[in-house]
Specification:
The chain has helices spanning 13-29, 42-50, 105-119, 134-142, and strands spanning 3-7, 54-59, 62-70, 88-96, 124-130, 146-153, 156-164. The chain has 165 residues and is an alpha+beta fold. It has a seven-stranded mixed β-sheet, sandwiched between helices.
């Protein structure tokens, strides 16, 4: 099987946006009102790709997963009790096409982010996950990420996680 994780490029925007819309519809269908038309959207994905912060998982030319990695975090993160110092990298907008879920792709994306963090000498990886997205939260805990508290965003409570590198 020909699969790889690589940096997103402008031609990926169409597929990335289509998969994002599938993910939003799927999440809403199972009762997770995490993402909507306001966030994330095609504009955000275009910005990620333009800043070379987007990473995609591709299998035989089909985009199956997406994430952004950068050092940006919301100001709400400042209130939390992080265990490691700077610099840190943050995972944003990690999603997997609904028809490809349950095949370990999110785990591969997380492993890629961890390797990226090590290679770029980050002290830790940080991110947040919607508190009502039980699957996402379970994956992060299983992967050794520690909870450092919660933040409140427009859509509700988000659990924040960290893993030292």
């Amino acid at each position: 099987m020909n699969c790889m994780i690589r940096k997103g490029i402008p031609k990926d925007i169409i597929q990335a946006a289509q998969v994002l819309e599938e993910v939003k519809a799927y999440m809403l269908n199972i009762g997770i009102d995490q993402w909507d038309q306001e966030y994330p959207n095609r504009i955000v994905l275009t910005q990620d790709i333009g800043r070379e912060e987007a990473f995609i998982y591709e299998e035989q030319g089909e985009l199956l997963a997406y994430m952004a990695l950068n050092e940006k975090c919301d100001q709400e993160y400042a209130e939390l009790n992080w265990k490691t110092a700077t610099p840190f990298v943050v995972i944003h907008r990690l999603y997997v096409k609904p028809s490809a879920q349950g095949k370990g792709i999110s785990s591969k994306m997380i492993k890629y982010a961890e390797q990226f963090a090590l290679e770029n000498k980050y002290q830790s990886i940080r991110f947040d996950a919607f508190s009502l997205n039980e699957t996402a939260n379970a994956v992060y805990i299983k992967k050794g990420y520690a909870s450092v508290g919660t933040v409140l965003f427009r859509k509700g409570v988000f659990n924040c996680y960290e893993k030292a590198m």
